[in-house]
Design brief:
Number of domains: 1
Number of strands: 0
Strand content: under 5%
Shape: rod-shaped
Order of helices and strands: HH
Structural class: mainly alpha
C-alpha cells in the first residue's frame, strides 16, 4: 500500500472522482445489460422465429412434393406408354420439389445446430460478464462508502485546521507574515 503524501486542498477532488466512478459503474452495468439483451434476442430469434419459419417452409415443401408426386402419377397414368405427351414436365416438377424439400431440411438442421452453438458460445462469454457484474456489485458500494468517508474526514480536517495553515511562517516572526 502506498503511504506517500498527497496535497489535497479541498474535498471537491474526491467528490468529483466519486461522480466519475458512479458514471463508470452505470456505463458498465448498461453495457452488461445490453450484451445480455442482444444475446437473448439472437437466441430467441434463432429458436423461435427461424426454427418456426423453417418448419413451416418444410411443411410447405412436403405438401408441394406430395402434389408433384400425385400430378406425376396422374400424368403417367394418362399418357399411354410414355408417348410424346409424356409426364416429363411433371417429372421435372417432382425433382424440383424433392430438391426444395431437401434444402428446407438442410436449413432446419443447420438452424438447430446454430441454436446449440450460439447457446454454448454465449454461456462461455457470460462467465467474464458475470464476473464483472459481481465485482461491480461488491466493490461499488464499498468504494462509494470509502470515498464518502474520505470526503467527511477531509471536511472535518479543513474545518478543524487553523486559518493560517497555508501562510508561510518566517522564523521568529508572527504567523500572519507581518
Amino acid at each position: 500500500m502506498w503511504h506517500g503524501s498527497v496535497k489535497i486542498e479541498s474535498p471537491d477532488v474526491i467528490k468529483e472522482f466519486r461522480v466519475h466512478y458512479i458514471k463508470f459503474d452505470e456505463r458498465c452495468r448498461s453495457a452488461l445489460a445490453e450484451i445480455r439483451s442482444e444475446s437473448q434476442q439472437v437466441q430467441q430469434w434463432l429458436q423461435h422465429e427461424q426454427i418456426s419459419n423453417l418448419k413451416v417452409e418444410l411443411r410447405k415443401c412436403e405438401e408441394l412434393l406430395l402434389q408433384a408426386r400425385y400430378k406425376y402419377s396422374q400424368a403417367k397414368a394418362d399418357s399411354p406408354a410414355y408417348g410424346r405427351n409424356s409426364a416429363m414436365d411433371e417429372l421435372k416438377a417432382l425433382r424440383k420439389a424433392e430438391l426444395r424439400k431437401e434444402e428446407a431440411e438442410r436449413k432446419l438442421q443447420n438452424a438447430k445446430k446454430w441454436v446449440s452453438l450460439v447457446e454454448r458460445e454465449a454461456n462461455k462469454l457470460f462467465a467474464p460478464i458475470n464476473n464483472l457484474a459481481n465485482a461491480l456489485d461488491v466493490t461499488t458500494p464499498k468504494a462509494l462508502a470509502k470515498l464518502d468517508q474520505l470526503t467527511r474526514d477531509l471536511e472535518d480536517y479543513f474545518r478543524a485546521a487553523p486559518p493560517d495553515v497555508g501562510t508561510p511562517r518566517t522564523p521568529g516572526g508572527p504567523a500572519n507574515g507581518s
